[in-house]
């Protein structure tokens, strides 16, 4: 059975630097101050891409990790499924302290398996053989009593499809070939135009040279013949 899922990001980094929100550049200092202050607490993360499109019948990983710089004590966590507005508990448990496995993990939804690992602050779950009913938003929730009941959560969205859509490129190809064709046509036109201009120029040049040659010939003739000097008149069309 193939497991699809996106990996949650490396958690430790956030402790030192930032909260996961992206803020405008102008409030950089505020952000820094706030993140130093807020990084103390718990953070839940469902990965850099908290979204997955999977085929019905496949088995998916819903990733979630937590970080806490002050450490955890009896961390309560749960997964909840947003079923048309009402939150259904998928599973929950308590992690006694850093590195200790939650035991037991209560599972409230069929085909769900807890695959987390406290060594990696990992509280991901698997959903086996997904059906279209499994589609929706899953909230990874955490509460660390060390923070006086503050709630933290992150959302992962699962989309179930009949079969993975092949991106339809027909239109793109049509547009590309149309544009390409137009450019090719334009280039051909320019080339032909330049070639014709070049040929015309050459003909003109040749004429000029012939003209010069003939006129100088005239001159020599004139010099050798009568001194009646008449300036050589270039031929005109
Ligand atoms: C969490 O655990 C699952 C199952 O062992 C694994 O597939 C996943 O990559 C882990 N995620 C992280 C961020 O370590
Ligand atoms: C997915 O759903 C479609 C239609 O409901 C069904 O024909 C197909 O067999 C299902 N695929 C799997 C792998 O269950
Ligand atoms: C959500 O529930 C409402 C009534 O409770 C119902 O009218 C609606 O069709 C439901 N939507 C879905 C997507 O199930
Ligand atoms: C998932 O489906 C396979 C075969 O379709 C079955 O063998 C397996 O028991 C199912 N797993 C769960 C957890 O339902
Ligand atoms: C945290 O969530 C619980 C329900 O899980 C709720 O009873 C409590 O009021 C929430 N606390 C805060 C500070 O929002």
TrEMBL record:
Domain of life per record: Eukaryota
Domain Ig-like residue range list: 24-157
InterPro entries for the chain: Ig-like_dom, Ig-like_dom_sf, Ig-like_fold, Ig_sub, Ig_V-set, Myelin_P0-rel
Gene3D superfamilies: Immunoglobulins (2.60.40.10)
Cellular component, GO annotation: voltage-gated sodium channel complex
Membrane association type: Single-pass type I membrane protein
Transmembrane segments annotated in the record for this chain: 173-200
PROSITE patterns reported for this sequence: IG_LIKE (PS50835)
Any one GO molecular-function label of the UniProt entry: sodium channel regulator activity
Localization terms from the record: Membrane
Region (Disordered): 215-237
Keywords: Disulfide bond, Glycoprotein, Immunoglobulin domain, Membrane, Signal, Transmembrane, Transmembrane helix
Xref: Pfam families: V-set
Any one GO biological process: cardiac muscle cell action potential involved in contraction
Keyword Transmembrane helix attached: yes
PANTHER family listed in its UniProt record: MYELIN P0 RELATED, SODIUM CHANNEL SUBUNIT BETA-4
Protein name from the UniProt record: Ig-like domain-containing protein
Taxonomic path: Eukaryota, Metazoa, Chordata, Craniata, Vertebrata
């Amino acid at each position: 059975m193939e497991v699809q899922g996106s990996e949650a990001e490396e958690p430790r980094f956030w402790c030192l630097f930032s909260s996961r929100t992206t803020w405008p550049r102008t409030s950089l200092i505020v952000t820094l101050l706030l993140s130093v202050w807020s990084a103390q607490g718990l953070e839940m993360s469902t990965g850099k891409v908290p979204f997955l499109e999977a085929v019905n019948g496949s088995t998916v990983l819903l990733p979630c990790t937590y970080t806490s710089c002050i450490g955890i004590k009896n961390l309560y966590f749960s997964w909840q499924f947003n079923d048309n507005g009402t939150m259904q508990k998928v599973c929950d448990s308590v992690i006694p302290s850093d590195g200790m496995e939650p035991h037991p993990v209560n599972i409230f939804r069929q085909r769900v398996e807890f695959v987390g690992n406290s060594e990696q602050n990992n509280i991901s779950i698997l959903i086996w053989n997904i059906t279209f009913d499994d589609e929706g938003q899953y909230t990874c929730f955490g509460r660390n009593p060390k923070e006086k009941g503050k709630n933290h959560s992150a959302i992962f969205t699962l989309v179930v499809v009949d079969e993975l859509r092949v991106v339809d490129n027909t239109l793109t190809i049509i547009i590309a070939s149309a544009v390409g064709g137009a450019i090719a046509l334009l280039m051909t036109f320019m080339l032909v135009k330049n070639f014709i201009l070049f040929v015309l120029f050459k003909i003109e040049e040749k004429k000029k040279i012939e003209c010069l040659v003939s006129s100088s010939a005239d001159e020599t003739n004139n010099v050798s013949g009568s001194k009646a000097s008449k300036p050589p008149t270039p031929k005109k069309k």
